[in-house]
Amino acid sequence: MKAKFNIINSTCIPIEIDNCNTDLIIPARYLASTTRDPKFFGNAFMHDLRYDAEGKPNRDFVLNLPAFSETPHEGVHEIIVGGQNWGSGSSREHAAWAIAGYGVRVVISSSFADIHRNNLLNCFVLPVVVTKEFQQELFDTISKNPEAKVIVDVPNQIVTNKETGHSEYFEINGYKKYCLMNALDDIDFLLENKEKIETYEQQK
Length: 204
Description:
Layout: E1 7-15, H1 22-25, H2 38-44, H3 47-50, E2 79-82, H4 94-102, E3 106-109, H5 114-122, E4 126-129, H6 132-144, E5 149-153, E6 158-161, E7 167-169, H7 174-181, H8 186-192, H9 194-202
Helix pairs in contact: 2-4, 4-5
């Protein structure tokens, strides 16, 4: 799940569901699992929308449509364009694990639930907040051309619709940006600065 962020140039998965809550992202029954296997949680991503009660794929759901069913990998479906208020509901970290385990590296929305947004960052998934107008433009673009690509330039904090050439600046906490660009979690960051911390402690 750890991978350095720089410039992501990828096709997108459109999940046009406003208030897509964490129970939809990963059903509660998966929370009892003790595994941390990314594939396990990736397979559970949007499970109850992807499959019916008998476990058969719901052919009408976006992840099962031929244009969007390919497993995310470099340049392909690494980005989700989600509806407003993405990740609302309970604060379960498993929702972020599921998104990361599925292979997604960026979620674009006009708004995120605060706790879920932080959970995504901790799981090396970048939440990008754009205007509602730009969000709708992305949905329209993908509807017309599922092969359309979006560029997420993390160093410059700019997201660009390659089809239209339109761009928007997005905010990101400086510490989290550094961690994403260097593939560091909080512990890694502390270890990277171990000598500085020890020096500071000795000066007390």
